[in-house]
Structure formats: structure tokens, C-alpha cells
Amino acid sequence: MHIHILGICGTFMGSLAVLAKELGHRVTGSDANVYPPMSTQLEAQGIELTQGYDAAQLAPAPDLVVIGNALSRGNPAVEYVLNQGLPYVSGPQWLADHVLQGRWVLAVAGTHGKTSSSSMLAWVLEHAGMSPGFLIGGVPQNFGISARLGGTPFFVVEADEYDSAFFDKRSKFVHYRPRTAILNNLEFDHADIFPDLAAIERQFHHLVRTIPGDGLIIHPAAEAALQRVIEMGCWTPVQTTGEGGQWQARLLSADGARFEVWFDGRPQGVVDWSLTGQHNVANALAVLAAARHVGVVAELGIAALCSFINAKRRMEKVAEVNGVTIFDDFAHHPTAIATTLDGLRKSIGNAKLIAVIEPRSNSMKLGAHRDGLPGSVVQADSVYWYAPANLGWDLAASVAASSVPTQVCASLEAIIEGVKAEAAPGTQVVVMSNGGFGGLHGKLAAALK
Prior knowledge:
Helices cover 33% and strands 24% of the residues. By secondary structure, it is of the alpha/beta class. It has three domains: 2-90, Rossmann fold (3-Layer(aba) Sandwich), CATH 3.40.50; 102-306, Mur-like, catalytic domain (UDP-N-acetylmuramoyl-L-alanine:D-glutamate ligase, 3-Layer(aba) Sandwich), CATH 3.40.1190; 316-448, Alpha-Beta Complex (Protein-Tyrosine Phosphatase, Chain A), CATH 3.90.190.20.
């Protein structure tokens, strides 16, 4: 079958393409923006990519068009599909019908940490010899690919609450029907499709309604929004993590690089890994609980975490030039920015920390998180915010109250000049964006040489 994917360079759709190819289909795709890591992964898989959405790419007609949720009515390719009566489906529906059917699905949902946690969980199962399939919204470095079918019934999926397609406004995760579900955390996000937090909580409850009675739901005990979701009705056993939970961590280093795991009041072992930050410690506890549900004892899960390498673009060290270290991170919400910087600060002590941030997500573009931005960067010594001409709101006014020295820049060149002027050996630079950021990481590394 020839499957054409519209929006193929999105992290979910690109992963879907890999699975379709592995199933033996001929896969092609197009996107408005073709950039790594998904573009490089797809090219390595021999998947033909087209830039833009010209209707000509759909002639001769493919057998099926999978339409990504970034596309809407008015898009020339979408209009052609509808006018020609071509068969089409959403990505989550295709995944459910052709990959997840009859499998033990382990889903990782939440506002933050989905990619890291699903990468961790896939690695823990792999380390235990369970050869899971997975679909992850990033490229886990222990595997080097974002999706695979796997050799057993177990399948790990990053379960996003974003909508499925222009014709299916349900959250993606309602299609997946997991038996094991991690609900990491829940905050207001996706302001382009949700009016308030209560609307997202309802979608999470739709997910809870699909989990069988012999399944398992895992969530932090102290997360009030998730507690409200569970109180709407729950028919599945629940295990809790973190403060007041059944699964707890005792930090052995302030940055979270070493911690002891406890379950039901008993020590299970020590995680000594390359990650930092309280958020990753929380992710690890949920992963150990999920893995235990499919038969992986905590001791084995802990051993796996000690050799875990986080997904690309999750505090990924991309360059070290003349003593200056550059990290690439996907953080695009004030909470994620704050926890990432806090983890690095606890790891590097008093070394200089520069944050470079692009407010690129749909919620950021709508200004939904702007009040939280000044407080999110308090662990940095200096911050550069990127404010392109089309941002639509006054970023400079929003971050003016920041206690940290702040520059708002209208160009990448201005950012590079600023960072170059103040970076010295030992400086740590974290570049944060959920997009390609115009190749800033490479340009910055070249300038520092």
C-alpha cells in the first residue's frame, strides 16, 4: 500500500511513518518545515519527503492519506484530498487500527516529561529482554530511532493530549486504549485548542475511562489536577509517586543524578545516571511503577535507568567550544524551563549559566504563559529571549520584571553576538525551543570558535 503522510516531520507523524515502512508499506510525506531530527531519521529510512503542500504531490493518488493535526481546512493538499474523495485518516486512528490492536499498550501522558519518560520506559523493557515496540515524540538515544514495531505484545506510546486532526478534535490518547497508563503531571497548555485547565482535565478523564479494570494508572500523589481527574470516576487500580506516594525517591545528590528508590516503605536500589533535575527523578519513579506492572522487578528497572541516555533535544549536549558547553533542550513551558534550569544549576554549582529561549509553541504564541516567564529563569545568570516580528505580543514587557539580566532579541545574529560577548570557559548555554530555532545551536558553536 502507498501511504502519504501530510505533516510528516512532526515528531508523532515522523514516528508513524517509520512504523508504516516497517509494516511493508511504501511511505511518502510532505511538510511545510523539514528539519532534524525527524527529517534525518526519515531520510535514513528511505522515506521520500516533499517540502510544502502542493496538491501535485498527491498525483498519482496514494492508497491512503494520513493527515497530521497541524493541517487544517484551506490547506491545498487537504482540499485536494477532500475534493478528490481520497481515503484519509488521522495519525492516532491509523496507529490504533494497524499497530496497537491486541497489544499491551503502556501510555505516557502529561503536560511535561512524556518523551523522556516513554524513552525511559522503552529502555527499561528493552534492558529486561522484553523487546517492546514504541512510538516516541523524539529520538531516544539508546535506540537511535523514534519508533519500531518490536517483537512482543508490549508497546510504549507517548500519549499526547493534543487534538487528533481537523476532523477529529478528541485528544490523540483516547485512541490508544492503554492497559498501563502514566499520568505524569497536568497544567494548562495548548491554549490554541483548550479554553482552560478544566477542559484538559476532561480529556484526561476520557483517557481514564478507557483503561481496563485489571490495568494500572500511575500518577504523582501531590498533583491536584490529576487527583481531580481520578475523582471524576476511576475503575482501575492506582499507584502514586513522589511526596505522599507509594513510590518515593531519596536524593543522594542535590541535582538528582543519584537517588534511592523506595516502594511501599522499602528500599529498592540506587539510580546513578547521567540525567539531572527533580522532574527526571519523578519521571523515573513512574517508569519503574509501569515496568513493574508488566513484570520487571524494580532492581532490574533501576539497573536499566543507570545506563539510560535521554532522548535527543532533552538537555542534549550538542557542542563544547573553547570550554563553553551548549545544550539543546525542548522546554517550551515555564514549568519545563524552570525545572530544566534548576537541574542544571544544581549540577554545575556556581558556573555561569546562559539561557536562550524561543517562545515558539502555540500556547506561547498566544501569550498564554507569559506571566510565568520571568520566574521560570531565576536559576540562570543571563537570558536571551527571541522575539520575532510575528510573535503577536510584547515579550519585552512580559520579561521586564525578571530578576535576571535579560536581552530580548529580534534576530539570531543579535543572540549570537550577545552570548559570544559574555561566554567564557566554563559557561553553560542552554538553547530552548520546540522547533529548529533556525539552526542556532550550530551557528552559535561556529561563532564561539
